[in-house]
User: Fold this.
Amino acid sequence: PAPTAVVPRGPPTLWVEDSPDTGNKNVALEMHWQLEATSEHRPKVVMDLFEAVMSEPLFDVLRTKQQIGYVASCGMRYTQGVLGFSVWLLSSKL
Assistant:
């Protein structure tokens, strides 16, 4: 498996990539917080709990009430020993 880069503390990294399909007006947004490299179970359990608590209100506000996207989701990531959390939004609104 490829190693996972641990991003150093500092200002946020922003990556914008245009779609090769210039007629496609859909947009995708991912906010990802890289938390820590760990093999401990407790931080992973806390992030699982955070996901369980946050996913329904996030969907309810962004998808149902504000109707700003057709996908509004969140989730914990554990990639190559690095813990993180992401929020995703897919929308046809600019």
In short: The chain has a mean pLDDT of 87. Helices lie at 41-65. The longest helix spans residues 41-65. The beta strands are 27-37, 71-79, 82-91.
